[in-house]
Amino acid sequence: GRGPGGCRGGKTDMALRCAASLAAGRHPRGPRREGTVRWSSAAKASAVKINEKASREKILTLESMNPQVKAVEYAVRGPIVLKAGEIEKELRKGIKKPFTEVIKANIGDAHAMGQRPITFLRQVVALCTYPNLLDSPSFPEDAKKRARRILQGCGGNSLGSYTASQGINCIREDVASYIERRDGGVPADPDNIYLTTGASDGISAILKILISGGGKSRTGVMIPIPQYPLYSAAISELDAIQVNYYLDEENCWALNVNELRRALNEAKAYCNPKVLCIINPGNPTGQVQNRKCIEDVIHFAWEEKLFLLADEVYQDNVYSEGCQFHSFKKILYEMGPEYYNNVELASFHSTSKGYMGECGYRGGYMEVINLHPEIKGQLVKLLSVRLCPPVSGQAAMDIVVNPPVPGEESYAQFIKEKESVLNNLAKKAKLTEDMFNEIPGVQCNPLQGAMYAFPRIFIPSKAIEEAKAHKMAPDMFYCMKLLEETGICVVPGSGFGQREGTYHFRMTILPPVEKLKILLEKVKDFHIKFLEKYA
């Protein structure tokens, strides 16, 4: 197979190589020797045409892609985190900076920040993953007992098999028992439990099945501002209507039903609001809702016929004296049958937060009550498309809801580790609040729960003007400067939503105490210099 001028190979291969040679201004076989056949103009035109086809326009471009996906924003892993990654690469190459490491305080990733895993949880997952260890004397019997039970619920007694789309049945039973214990005997049905890939998977699935209509009848989803960006991202992806209600910063980020009513009534002019999302304890704001507030919200949802989503992944993370976690399910039940038998409620929990911090396992569950029987079938069908949640994550979730109890050999170590993590977080919550409030131009509400601070920062008008010149939100500009000058990566408040004219950032309190003190001192020094520069 020689083509014109001696090109070898098949027709397509030959044509492409020859076309490339022509485009480069040379003969396909190098400098033309005496006696070599010249290319005809027709052959040249044909080769160029083939070359043009080879570099045709892409089918998928920013203009042709799904516009809903393009509209999605997720600030927790947004531009500032990408910049932090670039700086880390530069540090590894030996490029000098005013700091030696990037401290990623942007995300609630406990183990990445040095928190130790809970031994019992890891033991059970290890046993499930490698059942030969069940014969090892190194593992306690209570861990082996749980592992055997989980494996019996798996096809072929293997964690590597698919499970039912709702999750392993015995784990759903354990979740139901946990909810009953947590809520003081309020009944829970395993059939209403759906194991999920973290809480995020459950939230997205419920929103997907709730959203419908077009124009003014398009589903509106009420979310708190500030909010966790999963909600705005999912709403954008599903082309639903985001309806903002504002938490009261002056009152420790409290939720006010009058504000809910304002948001709802205004939204009715352009959409059909039928979903109300609550995050309790709050992310990024850290407030813990009291019983009266939850009762008011439930009554509002009942009165306005709203489907309630209760994001309760920080239910173990409550620190302030006088604050207590109340589940929406428990309060709903105690409000009586008129509410309990009618208000549709989906509640979410996860292995990622609390005292566990097992983000990577992607374990979670949702409990959905008062769902129409036909919709229940539709939800299972929707979940079936992704086959099942990660089975190791299901096993991890089981240990969260079925931990060692008094009398079992692992109980003493388990409770010691759990209390150590939670007491340490409570100490860091108070330290962070106190140190932020010592900085001029910074105001931080009490961190009642969760694992973040969301301080309000004063940004001078000169800095705001410079941010505009760089086409940045003022708090993005502030956070970018903080990263570039100190190596501290936090998330600007604009990524979570905030009232017009106010500026914040979210910072996790997960670093070890000594490292957290250094981080807070660096933020203090930076902020004072920032105010002096732009005063």
From TrEMBL:
Protein function: Catalyzes the reversible transamination between alanine and 2-oxoglutarate to form pyruvate and glutamate.
Keywords attached to this entry: Aminotransferase, Pyridoxal phosphate, Transferase
Record-given protein name: alanine transaminase
GO molecular function: L-alanine:2-oxoglutarate aminotransferase activity; pyridoxal phosphate binding
Cofactor(s) listed: pyridoxal 5'-phosphate
A family per Pfam: Aminotran_1_2
EC number of this enzyme: 2.6.1.2
Known pathway: Amino-acid degradation; L-alanine degradation via transaminase pathway; pyruvate from L-alanine: step 1/1
Keyword Ion transport attributed: no
GO biological process, one term: L-alanine catabolic process
Family: Belongs to the class-I pyridoxal-phosphate-dependent aminotransferase family. Alanine aminotransferase subfamily.
Ranges of residues in domain Aminotransferase class I/classII large: 123-522
Catalytically driven reaction(s): L-alanine + 2-oxoglutarate = pyruvate + L-glutamate
